[in-house]
Specification:
With 130 residues, the protein is α+β, with helices and mostly antiparallel strands. Helix content is 17%, strand content 25%. The chain has a single domain, classed as Beta-clip-like (Beta Complex), CATH 2.170.270.10. The protein has a 3-stranded antiparallel beta sheet with strand order 3-9-8, with no helix packed on it. The longest helix has 10 residues. The model has no long low-confidence stretch (mean pLDDT 90).
Length: 130
């Protein structure tokens, strides 16, 4: 769940991106997993989806490296794009919390490094990113 003001818009990285709609200071918590709001899916849950549903789901969900479960953010956090030098980092990937790695200006795209938490990173890069 996002904890700061954001907006979505066209991204130079990939399709739609998530952008800061307020100044975000270094160390500020920007997003965290909230049970009951954000969703957890197992491999068995994924098998229940049709081909089209599964493809769309996998575009926006990520596979947690530790649990093997899929996480789908219920808000616009699902539009965070990958960057090799992101402005959001997780100081503890087990907690599913993203903090600002540096000061972030209004209008700046918010990015994360998918390799830090998404077991399906290679799949996403091959099938969805430019």
């Amino acid at each position: 769940m996002l904890l700061v003001k954001t907006k979505i818009g066209p991204s130079e990285i990939e399709g739609i991106g998530l952008f800061a709609d307020q100044f975000i200071s270094k160390g500020m918590v920007v997003q965290k997993f909230v049970p009951g709001f954000d969703l957890i899916f197992s491999e068995k849950d994924l098998e229940k989806l049709s081909g089209v549903q599964k493809k769309e789901f996998l575009r926006y969900a990520y596979k947690n490296k530790n649990s093997g479960n899929y996480i789908l953010c219920a808000d616009n956090a699902r539009f965070l794009n990958h960057c090799d030098n992101p402005n959001l980092i997780s100081d503890n990937p087990d907690e599913e919390i993203d903090i600002a790695a540096r000061d972030i200006q209004v209008g700046e795209e918010l990015t994360v490094d998918y390799r830090d938490f998404d077991e399906d990173f290679d799949f996403k890069m091959k099938n969805y990113e430019k």
